[in-house]
Amino acid sequence: MILTQCAVCATELGLSLGKKCGRCSTRYCGPECQVQHWKEGGHDTLCKKIKKAGGAEQYNANEKYTEAVFHAAAACAEDTKGQTCFICTQALHWKTKEGLVRGCACRGTAGFAHVSCLAEQAKILFAEAEENNLDDDVIYERFSKWYACSLCEQEYHGVVRCALGWACWKTYLGRPEEDYARRMAMNALGNGLFEARVPKDSLSVREAELSILRRVGAPEELILATQSNLASTYEFVGRREEAATMLRDVYSGTLKLYGEEHRETLIAANNYAASLETLQRYQEARSLLRKTIPVARRILGESDRITLTMRKIFATALYEDDSSTLDDLREAKTTLEESERTARRVFGGAHPLVLALKGSMRLAREVLRAREAPEVLQTADDLAAHFDSL
C-alpha cells in the first residue's frame, strides 16, 4: 500500500495500522475519522466510485497519474510545440487529449511522445516477455521501458519520470506483494517522485518498499538497492547523518557482494561519496573517489553517468574545501570542464547532470579566481617593492 496515512487527519499508519472502509478500502486511523469522512468529507458520494475503480489504492493511483501527466505535458509544452508522438504519430492523444513530453537525451525531432503511449508500449513489451517465459535479462530490459527511452535508451528525468512512475504503479499494484512487476513498479514510482522533487511522497513509497522486501524475504541485492534509494531520500529531506550511515553500510555490503569492479558497487561508492561531500567530510569523499574513479573509467567508460557524477563530486569536494591548494582548485576546474563537455555531448544540454555540472563549473571558476587574485596582487607588490629598492 502506498496510502499510508489516515484519509482525514493524515496520521501515519504505515502498512498495517488503522482500519479500512469495508467497501472501498480507504484507510483511517480509527472509527471516529471514518465516521467524520462519511458525514462531512464526502466519502458517502465517493465510496462506490472508488470501489468501482478497484479500491482506494487503485483509485488514488489513477488520480495521481492523471495529475502527473498533465504537469509533465505542461512542463514540456514549449519544447514539444509542433511535434508529433513517435508511437502514435499524433500531436494530441486520440483518447486522453494529453500533450507531448520529452525527458530523455533524444535531439531534433526524435523522442516526442505521449505518456499514455509510452506506458502502453512498456506494458505490451513486458507482457509479451512474461507470456513467453523469456529469461530474466530480457524481462528486465523490457521493464526498463517504463523509465527509459526506447530510442536513445537514456532514462527519463523530472516530471516525465514521475508520470511514468505513476503509470507503472497503477498498472501493477493489484499483483501480490512478492510479484516482480509489482515490486519494480513501486521502485519506479519512488524514483519518479524523487526525480520530480516530491521527497515526502518518495520517502513514504521507499519506506513501504523496504518494509515489504524484508517481509517477503527478498534477496540481499534488492534490500541493498532499496536502502540506497531510501538513503538518498533521507538526504533530500535533511536527514543527512542517517543517510550517510545507511550509504556507508550499503557500500560495504555491495562491495562484499559484488566486488569493486561491479556497476552496483560503483554506484554505491558514488552515493556514499556524495553523502560525505554534503556533510563537508571532504577528505573522506576525495579519498574514496581517488580509489573508485579509475575503476569507473575503466569499467563503465568516460561518458557513463556514474563516472561523470563521481568526477563532479570529486571536483566539488576540492573547491568547497577551504584547505585546498591552488593546484587542487585548478584540478577541480579542469575536471568539471571536461566532464561538462562529455555530459553535454552524451545527454544533451537540458539533462539535470549537465545543468549540475555547469553550476559546479561556474562556482569552481569563481573560487579559483578569488584565490588567484591575492597571489597576483602579492606578485605586483613584490615587483613594486623591488623597483623601489633600486
From TrEMBL:
Keywords: Metal-binding, Zinc, Zinc-finger. It comes from the Eukaryota. InterPro entries: NLR-like, TPR-like_helical_dom_sf, Znf_MYND, Znf_RING-CH, Znf_RING/FYVE/PHD. Residues 6-47 form the MYND-type domain. GO terms for molecular function: zinc ion binding. This is MYND-type domain-containing protein. It comes from Pelagomonas calceolata.
